[in-house]
Design goal:
The chain has about 100 residues and is mainly alpha-helical. About 55% of the residues lie in helices and about 5% in strands.
């Protein structure tokens, strides 16, 4: 036997009414509803903030200042030297 019987639900309802009283249940439900509304509002605010930051990044503006483009450091170019020829050895010894 599970909680599918109507008698189980009636007994649970009576116990809840005895524990909390008839006046406390509507206040409890009102507090739950306020909590749900605050949660939804917070989620909507987060989505708006995220959308605003994404659109600011697309425009290249963050906090009202233009974004700076950062380039990778460039290595100084060294002038190209012509390839060196191997030294010429002359024999000072007489031939012949």
């Amino acid at each position: 036997m599970g909680f599918s019987s109507i008698w189980h639900w009636i007994i649970v309802l009576v116990v809840v009414l005895l524990l909390f009283g008839a006046g406390k249940i509507p206040r409890l439900m009102g507090d739950v509803a306020k909590g749900v509304k605050a949660f939804k509002k917070g989620m909507a605010d987060d989505e708006d903030d995220e959308a605003a930051s994404v659109s600011a990044e697309r425009r290249g503006i963050e906090d009202g200042k233009p974004a700076q483009t950062i380039y990778p450091p460039q290595q100084p170019q060294q002038p190209q030297q012509p390839p060196q020829q191997p030294p010429v050895h002359r024999d000072d010894a007489p031939r012949g």
